[in-house]
Write a structure and sequence with these properties.
The protein is mainly alpha-helical. It contains twelve helices and three strands. Strands 1-2-3 form a three-stranded antiparallel beta sheet, with no helix packed on it.
């Protein structure tokens, strides 16, 4: 029968309440259950359970979808506001008369205005756009961006953004979300991508974390080992040796009180030499965003206390 009639996946219908006829038709567009014999509307809020659709590609699924995009914290209104399309047609596909188009243009204009109705929504609309751009430039997964958006929304609701730059609070939110997601990024990396000073990001991060009572565990060298090895294009056996050296150094408490990126860089440097896949201190320092002096100091300390025999 098509969309208006019976579907194979639909449950069987009861008899008409008026005449007892079993000839009932589901009108999905109106949400009504109508008797074909007497015309009685048996139900006026009929729920379309939908057929058993199977999709084999994204285009097929988008064509059959009957709902909009899911709610997202990356949008200032979470994607729940309405939108008037730019097609000059009505719900039946008929063209809207010319005399009514001026009214439609005014409706579209006011619809755009009321979507961002106050200062808070304007702040969110701007900040979430900056956050999405920053997350993309840092190649962060969607879950980390969503976590950063939630942190920023909490900062706005607690009035922590007033007197601070939007870019600074966004960068601090991203830095905090990375630490909470066990995907740490250094302040230098966030500063380079966001264009905000390292000191400002650290100051805003500490303030926001204190006011919102956020639990951000300190990062460890283990969090950086794999990423540094991938950027230096080291083999898996070199990465395994670096993890072994770091495990032994942690057991002897040689990493306490040292910067995690400096220790991770030194361990990677030692492992690359021992595995015959040598990388220079300058190469490792550029990847880890530390100085060559830091790598040399950590390198000498680890090789001496772990009694590692280094080739000439």
């Amino acid at each position: 029968m098509g969309e208006e009639g019976w579907r194979k996946s639909d449950p069987p219908l009861a008899a008409c309440k008026n005449c007892g006829s079993s000839r009932l038709t589901r009108h999905y567009t109106q949400g009504e259950l109508v008797c074909d014999d007497c015309g009685l509307v048996n139900e006026d809020s009929f729920i379309d359970q939908g057929p058993d659709w199977r999709t084999f590609d994204g285009e097929d699924g988008a064509r059959r979808a009957r709902a909009g995009a899911p709610a997202s914290v990356m949008l200032h209104d979470k994607g729940l506001s309405t939108e008037i399309g730019w097609k000059n047609t009505d719900t039946y596909g008929k063209s809207i008369p010319t005399k009514n188009r001026a009214q439609l243009y005014r409706l579209r204009k006011w619809q755009r205005r009321i979507r961002v109705s106050n200062a808070t929504e304007r702040n969110l609309a701007l900040a979430l756009g900056v956050l999405d751009h920053l997350g993309g430039s840092m190649e962060l997964p969607r879950t980390v961006r969503d976590s950063a958006a939630v942190i920023y929304r909490k900062a706005v609701s607690h009035n922590l953004v007033r007197g601070r730059s939007i870019e600074g609070v966004v960068a601090a939110s991203v830095y905090c979300a990375c630490r909470q997601s066990n995907l740490p990024r250094t302040l230098d990396e966030v500063s380079e991508k966001s264009g905000v000073g390292r000191k400002e990001i650290g100051r805003v991060y500490r303030f926001v974390a204190r006011e919102l009572s956020l639990r951000c565990l300190p990062s460890s060298p283990q969090d950086y080992i794999q990423r540094f090895a991938q950027q230096l294009k080291l083999r898996s056996d070199t990465l395994a040796r670096a993890n072994q050296i770091l495990k032994e150094a942690t057991k002897r408490e040689l990493t306490s009180g040292r910067g995690p990126t400096g220790v991770a860089a030194a361990v990677i440097y030692i492992a690359s030499i021992l595995s015959g896949e040598r990388r220079t201190q300058r190469e490792v320092a550029q990847v880890a965003s530390v100085t060559e002096v830091t790598i040399r100091n950590r390198y000498k300390e680890l090789t001496r206390k772990l009694k590692l025999t280094m080739p000439p």
